[in-house]
Target: ZIP zinc/iron transport family
Amino acid sequence: MSFQVVGVNHQKHSHTHSDVCESANDFDGTNWGARISSVFVVLMTSAIGAYLPILCSKYSFIRLPPSVFFVAKFFGSGVIIATAFIHLLAHAQASFSHGCLGGTFLEYPWAFAIAMMTLFVLFFAELMVYRFVEHKIGLNSHSHFGDVGLLTQDDKDTDSVLGSPKDDGAFTQQTTEPESANPYPSHFSHAKHHQDPEVMGTPAVEAEKENYYGHLVSVFVLEFGIIFHSVFIGLSLAVAGEGFVALYCVIVFHQMFEGLGLGTRIATTPWPKNVKWTPWLLCGAYALCTPISIAIGLGVRHSYPPQSRTSLITSGVFDSISAGILIYTGLVELMAHEFMYSDEFKGKGGLKRVIYAYVVMCFGAGIMALLGKWA
Model:
């Protein structure tokens, strides 16, 4: 008898933890035509936002004034930063804070912890990529100077302090001054060289390679973070209930603005001719991701439970990771590098331009943060 009581209690306990979350969604069958149209409307707006900067930078007949491109660039930066904090990190914490999850999810801020871990992992990965590229390019550039090409970067650093070895083994202090002094970190495109870039093997060519690799890393990281959360945006729209119309409008603007920010970054990357198709593919992946997710969501509208335990945890984890990616990219690549290490704001009128860019970026962040009231 006692065994049966224990069994009943065990069943109740298991039932409480496995089925307490909702196993259905808010889909009510209304606005079916609008739900179908959302696949194509979101596809079109996402494509316009992502491809417009590339088209304007490549074709003169649709080339917009530089001021428009300038505004789009920094407005998109603000959109991306606000997306990280308002649309991703807040939603991730809301998913983990759902009362049905219980346990550690209610006792610890997992959304912020996962975002922080993602940020540190991303920084380490980017740091290793930079070190690898700088070392590789450094070794290649040394080969143009005779025996100096046999030295590693560490050897060069040592020689700059101790001097160069003479035949008798003694060291003499180097008197040659460096080509240029850069007060900022040598973070790829931030290194300055004043040589003809057409001459192969010169530091200017190597700096151009560094510039390309630096842009490449930041663009792919940004693309990955944006596409990562686009899947859940599409699924949420497909199975939305009474709030479908408001969510529909918000997602259309969200995809347009976010695509504009991503497309601008892709367009400003110095893509070599042998990979000239890459920016088109990156924008295409962004444009297709959310519409495909909407279509999938409509297909499984009766069986996809966004408030189930598994869906809440999965959505929370992916939103937290995406938030960490976009926070890192937004603060480091889009704010610090663009404002502090770029030549765009140097020279006459630089202060006016930097304030204008800052205001535009804040406006973009404010608009996207406002949209967070509805989505």
